[in-house]
Structures are given as C-alpha cells and as structure tokens.
C-alpha cells in the first residue's frame, strides 16, 4: 500500500519576484570628509584637555574600536596618507594624556 499523496495544490508556483539581485558592491562608501571631521573633533577635544576627558572604559573603546575603525575606513577609500597622519596625532595625544592622567582607583 502506498501512502504517497499527489500534490494537492498543483504544480509549485514560480517565484513571483524573480531571482534575488546581489547588492551593489559600492552601495555605501564612507565620505572622507565625515571621517576627517570626526578626527578633527577628537583633535580639538584632546588638544585642549589636560587629562583624559573620558573614563577608562571610554578610552579603551576609543583606542581599540573607534579610532582603528575610522583609520581603516580612511585606508579603504584611498586616504592612506591622512590615516597615517591621524594615527600619529592620536598616538601623541594618547601618550601625553596617559602621562598626565592619574590612574583610576581600583573598584
């Protein structure tokens, strides 16, 4: 005895929307001016600071995530020279502020 049932709804309906289109490779490109403006904001803030303006967690986030991300975006869009310059500027600010900022008390 066979329990196989015929397709009760007929043949499968063709895809109504057609094949999926791949997204464009350059769907979004970071504008160099946006990244450079962000670094200019950091430069102005850190340049006038006598100690770090952020707590340790925010400093770590800036150094480990934000600045490397922005530098990588500059390199991706062909602004490697600007990325090197900003990397040096941020490193100089970090060294100066690390020396001037007292360590945070242990929790």
Q: What would you note in describing this structure?
A:
The protein has 107 residues and is mostly helical. The chain has helices at 32-48, 56-76, 80-100. Helix 1 packs parallel to helix 3 and helix 2 runs antiparallel to helix 3 (80-100). The protein is elongated. The model has no long low-confidence stretch (mean pLDDT 86).
* Biggest sheet character: none
Determine the fraction of residues in helical runs and give it as a percent range.
55-70%
Given as residue ranges, the uncertain stretches (5+ residues, pLDDT < 50) are: none
Shape: elongated
How much is the radius of gyration in Å?
A: 26 Å
Strand content of the residues, in percent?
A: under 5%
What is the N-to-C order of secondary-structure elements (H for helix, E for strand)? HHH
Number of H/I helices: 3
N-to-C CA distance: 75 Å
Mean pLDDT across residues: 86
DSSP strand count: 0
User: From the helix content, strand content and strand pairing, which structural class follows?
Assistant: mainly alpha
In short:
The chain is mostly helical.
Which short descriptors sum up this protein?
about 55% helix; about 110 residues; elongated; mainly alpha
């Amino acid at each position: 005895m066979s329990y196989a049932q015929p397709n009760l709804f007929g043949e499968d309906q063709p895809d109504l929307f057609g094949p999926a289109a791949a997204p464009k490779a350059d769907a979004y490109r970071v504008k160099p001016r946006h990244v450079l403006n962000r670094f200019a904001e950091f430069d102005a803030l850190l340049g006038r600071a006598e100690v770090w303006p952020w707590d340790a967690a925010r400093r770590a986030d800036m150094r480990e995530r934000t600045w490397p991300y922005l530098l990588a975006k500059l390199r991706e869009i062909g602004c490697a020279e600007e990325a090197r310059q900003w990397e040096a500027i941020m490193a100089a600010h970090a060294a100066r502020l690390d020396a001037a900022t007292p360590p945070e008390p242990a929790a």
